[in-house]
Amino acid sequence: MFFRFMSALLIGMAVWVGPTLAADSPVKPNIIVIVADDLGYADVGFHGCKDIPTPNLDTLAKSGTRFTSGYVSCPYCSPTRAGLLTGRYQTRFGHEFNPGPGPGENAGRGRARNRPRPSQQNVDDSKIGLPLTEVTVADRLKKAGYATGLVGKWHLGNDPKYNPTQRGFDEFFGFLGGAHPYKAEAPGAPISLVRGTEPIKESEYLTDALNREAVAFVERHHEHPFFLYLAFNAVHTPLQATDKYTARFEKISDPKRRTYAAMLSALDDAVGQVLTKIREYKLEENTLIFFISDNGGPVAQGTTINGSSNEPLRGSKRFTLEGGIRVPFVVSWKGHVPAGKVDDRPVIALDIHPTALAAAGLPIEDSFHLDGVNLLPYIEGKELGTPHDVLLWRFGKQFAIRKGDWKLVKHDDAPPQLYNLKDDIGESKDLIAQKPEIAKELQSAWDNWNKELVPPLWSPATLP
Q: Which domain does 97 fall in, by range?
């Protein structure tokens, strides 16, 4: 009798306690945002690359949906990251150009060729960074109970008030500037990095170190929701790789391309180990993963700066042509995002912020003033239209607007040009003389949007 009573009591408690816990503690997915740096559009297997295997990135793409018209909001590193983290066009709040170099960053070691520096005239360095008025996706996820971590490149301000740990991240391992060496360049000269706010010494090849830290973050937080922003500096210059990786590409004769391939292979290995750890903890169905590059590969006048390729796109990092702003773009979430799907509807990195919030079950308030949209209904087939009627860019004197298949673009010192991207992805046939009415419509739409923007908070010494 006693045992029957206890069994009934336990069953009753289970029935009562279960729904209460479920209501109070809904399951929230883990969210991982992986960003490559200066990756060429053509340099991943899922875009047809033949000489650089990227098996882990390919596996990620096959497990989810890849957007062949995936964009970033700027053809340059820091503004793209400001837009990604806030979900807002960075030109709305003045983060139009890169901030200055980070601690230890200099032209001889980590600075890309022709990279604009902020003008130092009448500018206080302590005011150069992601404006404190802006709210990051890490801020919002942290408030919702997520463990938040950044591993890798920050590039959104060097002053302590801009530190990632002040912008929503519980943990930070990486560097503050825009570029960084990958390994010690002389005996006794270890890489200088930051953990939290404290400088640290690191002797391991930097991509491997970021790999180590990302895996450790997942290990520490796998039992509760986490947000991991894994921002590699690969494949940004300087071109540095270890023998472990360069040995894989002895058949590539061009030394620049060979080192680039080795650096990308290290990144691919790192992504593979993070995916393996997710599978080890059986978190695949509870982890939303994004993969993008921060801009296109740097190619200038037919010469690649880091060994990258943006084919069949025209242009490069620094320019509002497709080669500067169209990037590999993957969204994966087992059981929620269709596997192996290819979607050509235009999307943008601004969409990552609201998509992450929606996946976490968080409201997207009008007061957030987000320019990105939640992609999940479009990916799942609940919304059949396009996520964006129009996408827009402003970068100094350059601009672009895409509406449907049409793109109006002003790049470098050239006059505005009009392209039909469906027929001419390489932007080779300027149709502005044949279609002046379309050009006029797009120019008017861009002009109206431009009136909503603010002047840059700081200016580079030379505009790209």
A: 30-387
Q: What size, in residues, is the chain?
A: 464
The residue annotated as part of the active site, out of 47, 49, 74, 155, is 155
| Position 198 pLDDT exceeds 50 | yes
Last residue of a domain, one of 387, 420, 438: 387
Query: Final residue of a domain: which of 343, 359, 387?
Result: 387
Looking at the fold, whether 317 and 232 belong to one and the same domain comes out as yes
With cut-offs at 50, 70 and 90, classify the pLDDT of residue 187: low
Tokens of 74: 């700027």
| pLDDT one-digit tens code per residue, 114-139 | 344 444 344 566 789 999 999 999 99
Residue 199 shares a structural domain with residue 100: yes
- Using DSSP's 3-state secondary structure scheme, residue 192 falls into strand
Q: What local confidence, expressed as pLDDT, does residue 354 receive? A: 98
Is residue 458 a contact partner of residue 99, using CB atoms and an 8 Å limit? yes
Do the beta carbons of residue 41 and residue 310 sit within 8 Å? yes
**Catalytic residue flag (residue 369):** no
Q: Which residues pair with 175 in a beta bridge?
A: 153
Q: Own/partner pairs for 442-446, CB < 8 Å, 24+ apart?
A: 442/401, 442/403, 442/406, 442/407, 442/408, 442/418, 443/401, 443/408, 443/416, 445/390, 445/392, 445/401, 445/403, 446/392, 446/399, 446/401, 446/408
Q: How many domains does the chain have?
A: 2
Q: What is the pLDDT of residue 17?
A: 31
Question: Which residue is it, tokens 């960053």?
Answer: 105
Which of the residues 77, 222, 353, 388 is marked catalytic? 77
Residue range 92-116, pLDDT digits in tens: 999 999 986 655 554 333 333 334 4
User: Does any domain span residue 457?
Assistant: no
